[in-house]
Amino acid sequence: MHFNKRLTSARNNTYPPSRKNRPSNVVCMPTEYSSLGLVNTGEMFQKAMKGKYAIPGYNFNNMEQLQAIITACVETEAPVILQVSRGARKYANQILLRYMAEGAVEMSKELGGDIPIALHLDHGDTYEICKSCVDTGFSSVMIDGSHLPFKDNVALTRKVVDYAHQHQVSVEGELGVLAGIEDDVQTEAPHYTKPEEVEQFVYETGVDSLAISIGTSHGAYKFPPGVDPQLRFDILYEIEKRLPTFPIVLHGASSVIPEYVETINRHGGNLVGARGVPEDQLRKAAASAVCKINIDSDGRLAVTAVVRKILAENPRMFDPRKYLGPAREELIKMIKHKNINVLGNAGKA
Ligand code: G3H
Ligand code: 13P
Ligand code: ZN
């Protein structure tokens, strides 16, 4: 265990120290994720690689999303990565989210499940954010230096790996830039990952997994009208050849489920032209070196579709449980479908 120097006086006492014995300038001790019942992504990815399936990285910001993810994954006996973005940290508070993840582990047990659960920082952009997540109980972090020059990306990623690995926390790095909104920067065209850079990046940084850019993008508008929604499997396979059995990650992998888009548009929304990654391409990717597939937008769409429909049809309704409850049910259905029919992680807990 690695404690901050000024905390070592508390070491010989019980952990965590009682409020009375705590050094007065310290609010709380660094948290080892295993004490929260979380796991890192090491074994998950090894099994996913061998079994030719992918682990979902589902983002959450609130209680209903988290309940839905856990319920669906327990019911499908599926390992899962719970993702917290920088936006989620701002919205819901990192410490609260961490405790919610701890609660989620307990909830999964109460539901009768014994599923591996990782807590992951999505798109960390500084060493400090990654360190703070390691110190507060995350079992995995992403350091996204994809917008930096190669050398700077390597240096930043290496620094995070050096710290995280002292705590057995997994690290995801990224090479190549997705089109859409990434790191608060809107890019028109994607910069696909250059296969000739991946070996050096992985070797020099020591990362545990690598996010790549092969045509996916964040958000609900992944392919313009008239453009064939086709991922660059040629790049993926070239990367796989250069890094055999190394875990690859796909961001921006929502399918932008057409039924939700239609429901939203029918009830006052306007998401005309929204399109995502076809499910058959995700299935094909999951059978390759892709071990982690990130899904956020589809969850947002499911919730928004249900809430819009219910509120439009029930103008006198004002109890959030009456529309968030059904939204949560829809989210459970969607996640079960993804686990069973798209990612293949169902039954792999
Ligand atoms: O990759 C981006 C995720 O969808 C998180 O988005 O920063 O709006 O929470 P957010
Ligand atoms: P989507 O916007 O396609 O759901 O991607 C989410 C993501 O990559 C989170 O990191
Ligand atoms: Zn992402």
Can you walk through the features of this model?
The protein is of the alpha/beta class and about 350 residues long. Helix content is about 45%, strand content about 15%. An 8-stranded parallel beta barrel has the order 1-2-3-4-5-8-9-10, surrounded by 9 helices. Helix 2 runs parallel beside helix 4 (about 95-110), helix 3 packs across helix 4 (about 95-110) and helix 5 runs parallel beside helix 6 (about 150-165). The protein is globular and about 60 Å long. The protein starts with about 40 loop residues before the first helix and ends in a 6-residue tail after the last helix. Zinc ion binds next to loops.
In short:
By secondary structure, the chain is an alpha/beta fold. Helix content is 44%, strand content 14%. Helix 2 (63-75) packs across helix 12 (320-343), helix 3 crosses helix 4 (94-110) and helix 7 packs across helix 8.
Task: List its traits.
349 residues, two-stranded antiparallel sheet, disordered N terminus, binds glyceraldehyde-3-phosphate, alpha/beta, binds zinc ion, binds 1,3-dihydroxyacetonephosphate, 12 helices, 8-stranded parallel β-barrel
